[in-house]
Amino acid sequence: APPRRAACSNGRTASDAACCVWFDVLDDIQENLFDNAECGEDVHEGSCDQSLRLTFHDAIGFSKNLTAHGQFGGGGADGSIMAFAQIETNFHANVGVDEIVETQRPFALKHNVAFGDFIQFAGAVGVSNCAGGPRLQFLAGRSNISQPSPDLLVPEPSDAADKIFARMEDAGFSIIDTVDLLASHTVAAQDKVDASIPGTPFDSTPSTFDAQFFVETLLNGTLFPGNGSNVGEVLSPLHGEFRLQSDFEIARDSRSACEWQSFITDHTKMVTKFESVMKRLATVGHNPNSLTDCSEVIPVPKAVTLPPPTLPAGQTLGDVQGACAATPFPRLSTAPGPATSVAPVPPS
Ligand code: HEM
Ligand SMILES: [Ca+2]
Ligand SMILES: [Mn+2]
């Protein structure tokens, strides 16, 4: 006999009754947080992208080293950044995160779900709205009791690759895992590194979960898109595009460069590896086996055929700073027409 399914509201069913509430949360946030399931452009200023960023800033508050030294190392993906927002959003690396925490909190309270669950759920739903995007696993059942994360666990864009890799390793993520996680920056923009140009994206296609980010980060940088060189910023190749120092370094580091470049010719690999590493990010500090799998609630991203990655108009292979010793940079074609400026992500 087929397994019995729990009846939820609106005639829907779930594999486990504990998943029913998440259908209600889904309806609510798609309409009221993500402006009817849009990727990257919403009423609440890019809440989709900010929600994805928040999954990281909550979860990365976890340190094996601190624990080994008898200190509290943080609870990982435990909702502490929402429960103790007045502490954690004041950490320097969390600048700007207070906005999405405050935007999300009323939804979690209304549906009476744990903050840690809500943050990971909203990130998964938000990114499922992006064309070409991943369908992330969602496990529910995290405790809503947490303690504030220690400071200095969230990587800064001004940190050297060595420092970022060490920090990520201390939270359970290898160098390759870190590259896989950075696929998130294909649907991302900055607001605070250069506050004079909020909404300046990291690639030319910030509402598409494509591989353009991995191409454009390897181009020779020639300009600052805003008010000059800020801490954590390096030269960008395109008007209207922002480059983080951390992305620049990780794209070129011999330990990470080949994984970085490999996504340019393999979108399926990029998405699959992101899905896989996000399973682990979402459960940092938890035993996944003690949570309930409610992945069925996460929408299936629209099936789209994305155009292959290209060199932006005006750029040639000579502008590429390929850094993978084992494999030459792929022979991409250049988008036609004159060089253009990348449009900002709509601001608050
Ligand atoms: C590994 C080191 C990382 C560093 C140094 C870093 C740094 C940054 C910085 C500085 C911003 C711009 C913030 C602002 O000015 O508003 C940003 C944006 C973003 N990051 Fe990261 N990040 C890292 C990893 C990640 C990971 C692992 C994820 C998710 C899995 C992520 C997701 C995002 C997203 C979605 C945005 C865009 C937010 C928006 O558009 O509002 N980042 N990141
Ligand atoms: Ca993109
Ligand atoms: Mn946390």
TrEMBL record:
Record has Phosphoprotein as a keyword: no
Intrachain S-S bonds: 8-20, 19-294, 39-130, 258-324
Active site as annotated: 57 (proton acceptor)
Alphabetical keyword list: Calcium, Disulfide bond, Glycoprotein, Heme, Iron, Metal-binding, Oxidoreductase, Peroxidase, Signal
Binding site for heme b: 185
Cofactor note: Binds 1 heme b (iron(II)-protoporphyrin IX) group per subunit.
Site (Transition state stabilizer): 53
Superkingdom of source: Eukaryota
Record InterPro entries: Ccp1-like, Haem_peroxidase, Haem_peroxidase_sf, Ligninase, Ligninase_C, Peroxidases_heam-ligand_BS
Pfam families according to UniProt: peroxidase, Peroxidase_ext
Family the entry assigns: Belongs to the peroxidase family. Ligninase subfamily.
Protein name: Peroxidase
Residues noted as binding Ca(2+) 2 in the record, renumbered to the chain: 186, 203, 205, 210
Cofactors required: heme b; Ca(2+)
GO biological process, one term: response to reactive oxygen species
Source species taxonomy: Eukaryota, Fungi, Dikarya, Basidiomycota, Agaricomycotina
Region (Disordered): 329-348
Domain Plant heme peroxidase family profile intervals: 52-328
Binding site for Ca(2+) 1: 58, 76, 78, 80
GO function terms (MF aspect): heme binding; metal ion binding; peroxidase activity
EC numbers on record: 1.11.1.-
Species in which this protein is naturally found: Dentipellis fragilis
